[in-house]
Amino acid sequence: MHKRRIFVLGSANMDLVFALDRLPREGETLAGGDLALFPGGKGANQAVAAARLGGDVKMIAAVGADPFGQTLLESLGRAGVDTSRIKTSVRPTGCACIYVLPGGENSIVISPGANADLDSGTALAQLADIAAGDFLLAQLETPLETVEAAFAHAAKVGAATMLDPAPARALPRKLLECVGILTPNQTEAAVLIGDPALGMGTFDDAERAALRLLALGVQAVTMKLGAVGSLYSGVEGMVRAGAFQVTAVDTTAAGDVFNGALAVALAEGASIRDAMRFANAAAAVSVTRPGAQNSAPDAEDVKRMFAV
């Protein structure tokens, strides 16, 4: 029987993390904590999260021929990700400056670097063997035309597709119609709908927003609602999954961990309800740890979260 593989098309960044009491105002200089370096990038984070949870993961990305790129390849490899499809670019490895506030919330500035060099031809060549039953995950830290081409190909061969629409932006309908599951957070959903004042503080709010997102052409929506939990809307109807209550240290990559965990659970045949609970638990573990890929749990960590 064909094994359900998880292909992750996306970014690989080195994260430069600063702890701050607050964000600086215009023209202001603030002293922060010591600089910490963590392997990151939304694509690489999702790949690591899925691999640590037992997924058969293939990463399609681009890094520079520099120390940051080598560090990222090593981090992915240690997690069990197949890195043979990662391109070496003439551009420097992508970086992200992450400012972490005392409550664990963060603000991020990205320098795409090699991520912007991940072209459609490279992506399609590395997806030549994707087949029905496989999964393709992507985000928006690589060129949009690359994501569009990859999703059109995956949909054509019958692979399941999952798009994390981050960083937030409006998206063309031709891409959205190739999306099996769209996984926005509250901010991203508001941008896609075109309603910046959209409130999603409750499941009822999220259900109304999910219906508006489905009208954009996607097959299903799984909304990431932070401390509220997650909500699915699709062929199974509306499914609510409450969050696990933890004390957040750093929310960086929590959404990426959710996506990776959701893909693993679905690839293993879980129901959408069970997959969402599994993804919520994995994300809850991740916010109790600093860093991006460093925070991704393994299956035993998630099992312990269920036992709390």
Describe this structure as you would to a colleague.
The mean pLDDT is 94. The chain has one domain (6-12, 41-93, 114-307): 3-Layer(aba) Sandwich (UDP-N-acetylmuramoyl-L-alanine:D-glutamate ligase). Helix 8 runs antiparallel to helix 9 and helix 9 (272-286) crosses helix 10. The protein is built from ten helices and 14 strands. With 308 residues, it is α/β, with parallel strands linked by helices. The chain starts with 5 loop residues before the first strand and ends with a helix. The longest helix has 15 residues, at 272-286. The strands form four sheets. It has a five-stranded parallel β-sheet, sandwiched between helices. Strand 10, helix 5 (173-176) and strand 11 (181-182) form a beta-alpha-beta unit.
How would you concisely characterize the structure shown here?
The chain is 35% helix and 21% strand. It has 308 residues and is of the alpha/beta class.
Beta content comes to: 15-25%
Number of strands: 14
Assign an overall shape: globular
Largest sheet, strands/sense/barrel = 5 strands, parallel
Distance separating the two termini: 36 Å
The assigned structural class equals alpha/beta
Tell me the radius of gyration.
18 Å
Order of helices and strands: EEEHEEHEEEHEHEHEHHEEEHHH
Write out the CATH superfamily name: Ribokinase
Enter the CATH topology name. UDP-N-acetylmuramoyl-L-alanine:D-glutamate ligase
**Main sheet: which strands, in order across?**
4-1-9-10-11
DSSP helical segment count: 10
Mean pLDDT: 94
Low-confidence stretches: none
Helix content: 25-40%
Q: Which CATH C-level class is it? A: Alpha Beta
Give the tally of structural domains.
Answer: 1
